Amino acid sequence: MIEFHLLSRSGVAPYLQLIQQVRSALRLGLLEEGERLPTVKEVSVALAINPNTVLKAYRELEYEGLVAGRQGVGTFVTKTVSEESVAAHQELSQDLRTWLRKARATGLDAEGIEAIFQRAIRSEILEEQAV
Amino acid sequence: MIWMTWRQFRPAAIAASATLVVLAAAVAATRPTLLSLYTSAGLPACHTACASDASNFLGSVRSSYTGKIFWAGIGIMYLVPAVIGLFWGAPLIAREIDSGTFRLAWSQSVTRARWATVKLTMIGGATMLTAGLMSLLIGWWSSPLYQAANQAGPNTFQISRLSPTMFSTTGIVPLGYAAFAFTLGAAAGVLLRRTLPAMAVTLAVFAAIQVLVPMLVRPHVIPPVQTTHAVSAVQIGPAMIGAHGLYSLGLLGISGHPGALILGNRLVGEAGQTLTRLPSACDFGPPDSAFSSCLARHGIRIVVSYQPASRYWELQSAETGMYLLLAAGLGGLCYCAIRRRQRAA
Amino acid sequence: MSIPAVATRGLGKRYGRHWALSDCTLSIPAGLVVGLVGPNGAGKSTFIGLMTGMLGPTTGSIEVLGGPAPNSPEQLARIGYVAQGTPIYGGLSVADHLRFGARTNPGWDAALAARRIQDLGLDLGQKAGKLSGGQQAQLALTLGLAKRPELLILDEPIASLDPLARHEFLQSLMAAIAERELGIIMSSHLIGDLEHVCDYLVVLAGSRVVLDGPVAELLACHHLVTGRRRDGTSLPPGVQVITQSHTDRQSTFLVYSTVPVIDATLAAEPVDLEQLVLAYMGGAARTTPALEVQR
Question: Does residue B155 surpass a pLDDT of 60?
C-alpha cells in the first residue's frame, strides 16, 4: 500500500502533493490496478491533516479517472499509466531535453534553469485553479 | 457531581476519620482515670450538699494530669472549626480557580449552579458532622467535671459551661462555628480567587468574630435576668476599691444559682438608687462577712444581672442558630458569585 | 442554510476600560475545523470564553449551535471545551477522570473513552499530575471528545507541547473528526500549527476580527504581486491592496482579488497562510493605538 508524506513548506498545497504522489507511484509501478488506497481517516491521521484535504485529493484523482471510490469499501486504483501515456512521456522527455540544451546554451546554470521552470509551473497551476 | 465531590474530598475525609478515631481512643483511654477521681471524691454516693466533695474532685483533677487533658480538649474544640474553615472551606473553590480546573468542571454537562450547590452542601454537611462528633466525644468525657462544677459553686478551678472560655467548646455551637468558618472560607475563596490569601482572610475574620461575639453579642442574645439580693447572698471576689470610692465588685457567684454567668452588678441603696461609693464605714478591709453585714446595716443591696445556668441550652441554640444563619448567608453569597459570568479569572 | 457553529453580532467584552474584544460580527459554519489565530492579548481567549459560556458579553450577542452560550445541561452537553493549559486534576487518577466524565455527562461514551486511553497507552491508575504534558493534553482531549459534543472548542491546546506531542495531539484530533461529524474551533498564536488542519480561519488582532473565511477561498483569492515600482492604485481594477512595500526599483503587494491578476508587467504568486495572516495582523497593528493594554 502507498504511504504518503507531506512537505510543509514546499509551496505546493497538501492535496496537490497527495495527487502527485499517487501519480508518481502509478508511474513507478508502486501502485497496481485494483490496489486499495489508504482510507481518508488513515491518511489524515498519519499526516495530521484535515480529512477534507484527503477527500479533495481522492475526488480529483477520481475525476481524472485514476481511481474509483466504492461506498463502504474504499478507494481503488482503476488504471495504471497506460502504454499511450508512456509513449507521450517519451515525447515529453525529448522535448524537455531539447529545451534544456537551449537553456544551457544561453549560459544559465542549474539553479537559473530551475527558477524559470518553477515560475512556469506555478503560473500554470494558478491559471488552472482559476479556471 | 456527587461522586466527584466525594472523590475530591476523600483525602480530607480520611484525615478527619482518622482524627476522630484517635480522639475516641484517647477519650476512652483517659476517662477511667477521671471517673476514679470522681469516685474517690465520694461524689457518686453524695446526693445533697455535695459542694465540698465536688470541690475536692475538681481540685484533684486540677492537680493531676487529667486536668491538662481537660484543657487539651478545650483547645481542640477551639481549633477544630478554624482548621475546618481554613482547610476545607478556603480551598473548596479557590483551588479550582487557582489551578484552572474550574474550566474543566464547568464544561461538563452540569451547570455551575449545581456544581456549587453540591460542593457547598455536601462538604458543609461533613464539616458540621465532624465538629458535632468531636463535640460529642469531648463533651462526654468532660460531663462529670461540668456536673461537679455546678454542685461545687464558685471554685478556683472556674469550670462553668456558661463561661466565655467554655461555652464555645461545648454543646452544639461548634457545629455552628464550623459551618460558619467553612462558608466563610469558601466565600473568601470565590472572591479572592487564590487559596492562600483566602486562608489568611478566613483566619483573620473568623478569629475576630470569635472574639467579638462572646464579648458583645452572646450576653444579650437573650435578655439577662436581673434580681436584687442581699450582699451576703453573693460570693464576692476581688473588689476593686478606687481612691474615690467603689470601683467595681467582682462577683464569683450567687447563692442558689450555681454556674450562672454574671454579666454585671450594681449596688443600690434603700430607695433603689444606684450607689457609686460605699459608706465610709464600710470602705475598707477585705470583702468578708463583716463587710457584708456593714453594707446590710446601711440598707445596701446588690442588683445582679446574669444568665442562669438553666439557660445553657437556650443560649446554645440561639447562638448556633445565629451562626448557621450567617453560614447560610455566606453560602448564598458564594452561589451568586459563582453564577455571575463576569470573569473567567 | 444550516445552523452556524458560532454566530455573533456586534459582540464585545470589556474589562474596566479595556475592550478585550470589540465589534465582532461573524458566522462560523458548522462541521468544519476552524482556526482562531492571533497574537497574545488579541482576544482569542476572551472570544472562546464567550463561546463556552465562561464569560458574558458586554455588548452584542452570541449564539452557539443555534442556542445561547452554554449555561444549561443540554447546551453544555453539545459543546466540549478544552481550556488553555489543558487543566486536569493532578491528584486524581486517569480512571477517576473518566469516571468524572461518566458521572457528569449523560451523553458519555465510555467505550470511546476506554479505547482512546488504551490506544494512547495511558495507565488507568496513574495520577494525572504525573503524566507528561502531552499525555495530560490527550487526557483532556479524551474528556472533551467522549461526551460526544457537536462542537469542540480548544484554547491553545498545543502551545506548550513538544513537537512530537503536538503532532500526536493533532493526529488524535484528525482521527476524531474523520470518525464522525464534529465541528472544531481551535485557537493558536502559531499559524504553523493550524495550516494543514483548518478549513476555516478567523484572524484576531487588536481585539478585533481582521479576517475570516474558508482557507481554500482565502488562499485562492490572495496573491503576492511583484513588479517595477509603482503606486497601488495603478494595479488592475478589482484588485484590493492589503499590504505593500517598496524599494527604489521594486514594489511588492499582497492583494485580494477574486479574479486572477493578469498583467504582463506583474508577477503573481500564491501566498501561503502564514504570509496572509501576518499581513492582516500587521495591518491591524498599525491602526491600533500604541498604549494597547497587553495581558
Answer: no
Q: Which of C174, C219, C272 sits opposite A48 (nearest CB)?
A: C174
Judge if A26 and A72 occupy the same domain: yes
Closest Cα in chain A, distance from residue C185 (Å) = 13
pLDDT level of residue B156 (50, 70, 90 thresholds) = low
pLDDT of residue B245: 53
Give a yes or no: residue A4 inside a domain. no
- Residue contact C89–B8, C-beta within 8 A: yes
Burial letters B206-237, b for 16+ CB under 10 A, else e: beebbeebbeeebbebeebeeeebebbbbebe
Q: Which residues from chain C sit within 8 angstroms of residue B343, using beta carbons? A: 15, 55
Number of domains in chain A: 2
Residues B275-298 have pLDDT tens digits of 767 677 776 666 667 777 777 787
Residue A18 lies in a domain: yes
Instruction: Name C100's Cβ contacts closer than 8 Å, sequence gap at least 6.
Output: B3, B4, B7, B108, C89, C92, C143
Q: What is A10-66 written as a DSSP string?
A: SSS-HHHHHHHHHHHHHHTTSS-TTPEEPPHHHHHHHHT--HHHHHHHHHHHHHTTS
Residues of chain C with Cβ-Cβ distance to B344 below 8 Å are 45, 49, 54-55
pLDDT at C102: 94
CA of C260 vs chain A CAs: smallest distance (Å):
6
> Which domain range does residue A114 map to?
83-130
What is the pLDDT, as a whole number, of residue C287? 47
Test mutation, C164, C174, C201, C225, chain A, max A CBs within 10 A = C174
Give this prediction's pTM: 0.84
Chain A residues with beta carbon closer than 8 angstroms to that of C267: 119
Specify whether A125 is located in the same domain as A100.
yes
Q: Chain B: residue nearest C81 by CA?
A: B107
Spans of chain C, pLDDT less than 50:
287-295
All structural domains of chain C, each given as residue ranges with its CATH number in brackets, are: 6-213 (3.40.50.300), 217-287 (no CATH)
- CATH assignment of the domain containing A36: 1.10.10.10
pLDDT by residue (tens digit) across C81-109? 999 988 999 999 999 999 999 999 999 99
